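Subject: Interface between my chains keeps coming out wrong

I've been trying for a while to get a sensible model of this assembly. When I model each chain on its own everything looks fine, but I need the whole thing in one frame so I can look at the contacts. Pasting all components below, labels as-is. Any help appreciated, I'm running out of ideas.
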Amino acid sequence: MRLREKYIVYNVPMQNTFLYKRDLNFKFPSNVKKITGFLISANRTGAGTPKVFSTTMLLNSEKEEIFSGDVLVEDMANFDGQFKFKEIDVDVIPNSLLSGVAIHFNCASVYTAKYYFRCIEQVDDNMVTDTIDINPRFFHV
Amino acid sequence: MASNIRKQRYQIVPIRITAANQIVGINVETDNAYDKIKSIQAEVLNSAALTGGAFSTPFTVNDQVVFDTGFEMKLLYSTLNVPAKDRSFPLNNVSAKGAKVQFQFQDNGGFVANGNAPYTINLYLHLVNEVEAK
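Reply #2:
Try treating it as a single job with all components included. I did that and got this:
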């Protein structure tokens, strides 16, 4: 068993109405042990794309709050050089459910908000996979 | 005895987009002379081309997912406002050593459809040996 980093993406479709609010419901895979960062991005850019997003994220039936507040929506329009993940440190039990809400104040177009999570997952190296890849260069007669 | 171990290499993986909504499949092996992929960096001539473009299958290294389906290429890009040494997206403990890197990238359609020229994203895999990675 070893730990490795993985980036998980959840898509949240948003409507172009004033103060649009949407429920979040993400289920994390059972091998995810920790969440170390998150980032919210809009899959479009230009006039009308929300710059700031208000969100609340709770893990496992509101027992643990991951985040609550406003975050910058990372897109190419308000881009200042590099996209940055918000650093968090949350332990995750198997099959955890993340719930919460996403709110934007105004937007001219329908778009998809993407929630990215940087996770630490546990990998079982002894797990049998259904594909076997043999590279003949590594065999010597 | 002097060591001949090379410390690092930037392996380039080009992704050529010639049509709107095109999907490009990539299947490469990393250089066997290096232990780890330390970081990854996307470069493109016009950053507007990256808006909405994302991996349409997971980005995997030796069949293990690093970036999920839907991860946008723009997150691996940074502008010249960022110091060169900080421009690469760090990866944590990803083995190289001839690792199989596989993914599909899908263009979002807007850039080429609006009359812009085809573009190429160069993905730089920063390969290092263990000594350098520490």
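Reply #3:
Confirming on my end. The beta strands of chain A are 2-14, 20-27, 32-42, 52-59, 64-72, 86-91, 97-104, 111-123.
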